[in-house]
């Protein structure tokens, strides 16, 4: 019997795949199960429970598939491991039932943008490709029919922790910066090793695309000990890189000759998106997509909601929703990528933030800070004397009204919170949606929203 812990997108997808393969399956969720997932399980006659875990039933399983959100230190997981019951992720389980090639993408920041862009480049070139993983779509459910030649899969470290036999044909590691360290005994070494599982099991016919400019990646990854093909990209280290920039042109050299891919028409702004674009373009070239096809596809790409997404313009002021930026590094990338004066909206539930790295950019670019949160003390203390105008509010509508006083034509209003959203909002999506709605109330010249 397969026991599945967590009845969200990945858990229910795994349950449906297990049943389709003739396996006995039981689903358990300690919390509530959303109606849409209850309906899927009921329609398939898959037994499930909500609100508690039946330890005896779960610990009688031959294998456990757990949600990425459940930590290994949870009592039930510890008991399962003590009984030598394998505990794996949905991605590991799904990978057993397909011969398709995986393009796996991880990193502390930029995963979703790079995943969406890679998928877009392959799909635009006519390849038979599907999107799955941490992006919010179950790989296991897609594998039931298994109609694709490629799966582009966004992978969190939590998913990678439960993957053992999985092998990506192309693995991408964008960067490693401190995040979720509570799950890794507050050890960067442990966190880095988790991220590097993206390159596990590779052979000479597989490719590991990694950021040559990322210090932590280079500390823990040794190309000389790697059995696959290492494909580094860079902005700063041209001699060793297989992709680098000259102005707005991305130069790729992995094939032995220099190829020029123009990125000027891409909607992706900032240095961090140069890295994301380089990684996605290398993946596209490695599966055989020609440079001219890539150049054309870059011009038609639209990023996900809440990631440096322009949501409106009023009185010559551009409003950008970057609600997904829930850590300091993500905000740094946003500030670095915007050249206009900025009115910055930040705040929420602090995750132990150190704002030191933002202070130089703040002094150079930010004319006003609007703190949108219940407890703004750390933000205010960190930027007092650096940003000339600081306001506090717990209302997104009031925050937008304050921007009308602070911003002039040519400025950018940037929601890039650096914090979790749970003090005032359900999640970062809810925060970003409320921001976009508030902007639309004052917009004089609505823009077609990017999605």
What features would you describe in this structure?
By secondary structure, the protein is α/β, with parallel strands linked by helices. It folds into 3 domains: 2-88, 3-Layer(aba) Sandwich (Rossmann fold); 92-298, Mur-like, catalytic domain (UDP-N-acetylmuramoyl-L-alanine:D-glutamate ligase, 3-Layer(aba) Sandwich); 309-442, Alpha-Beta Complex (Protein-Tyrosine Phosphatase, Chain A). The protein is 34% helix and 20% strand. It has 17 helices and 20 strands. The chain has helices spanning 9-20, 35-43, 55-58, 75-82, 90-95, 111-124, 139-145, 157-161, 188-195, 215-220, 271-286, 291-298, 328-337, 359-365, 377-383, 396-406, 428-442; strands at 2-5, 25-29, 48-50, 63-66, 87-88, 101-106, 129-133, 150-154, 170-173, 207-211, 229-233, 243-246, 249-252, 259-262, 309-314, 317-321, 342-346, 366-372, 389-393, 412-415. A 6-stranded parallel β-sheet has the order 7-8-6-9-10-11, covered by helices on one side. The protein is globular. Mean pLDDT is 93; it is low at 444-451.
Unreliable segments of 5+ consecutive residues: 444-451
Shape: globular
The CATH homologous superfamily of the largest domain is called Mur-like, catalytic domain
For the largest sheet, list the strands in their spatial order: 7-8-6-9-10-11
Reported CATH architecture of the largest domain: 3-Layer(aba) Sandwich
- Helix percent band: 25-40%
Q: Give the class-level CATH name of the largest domain.
A: Alpha Beta
Report how far the terminal alpha carbons are from each other: 41 Å
The number of distinct β-strands equals: 20
Domain count: the total is 3
